[in-house]
Amino acid sequence: MMWGWFDPMYILFLAPGMLLAMWAQWRVRSAYAEASRIAARSGYSGAEAAQTFCIRPASTTCASSRFTGLCQITTSPASTCCA
């Protein structure tokens, strides 16, 4: 039985996907909520860490960086990471 453009059989095909999407969203939200309660070992907030990184000269940033790609990005004298 159809009512205009809507066929109730669509629900049979949409329901499993919608339930899976809601379950995945619930898992992501609960994992983020759990992880957000864990404090950083350094004691800095994300904003404080970014500010500390931005005011360092590029040469000391590269010497202490564990990420080699980051050194290539931040060594340019014209680049600034914070305005």
Low-confidence parts lasting 5 or more residues at pLDDT below 50? none
Q: Assign an overall shape.
A: elongated
From the N-terminal CA to the C-terminal CA, the straight-line distance is 62 Å
* Helix and strand run: HHHH
Compact summary:
The protein has 83 residues and is an all-alpha fold. It is 63% helix and 0% strand.
Descriptors for this entry?
83 residues, 0% strand, mainly alpha
Structure description:
The protein has 83 residues and is an all-alpha fold. The protein has four helices and no strands. Helix 3 runs antiparallel to helix 4.
Describe how the helices and strands are arranged.
Layout: H1 9-36, H2 46-55, H3 58-64, H4 68-74
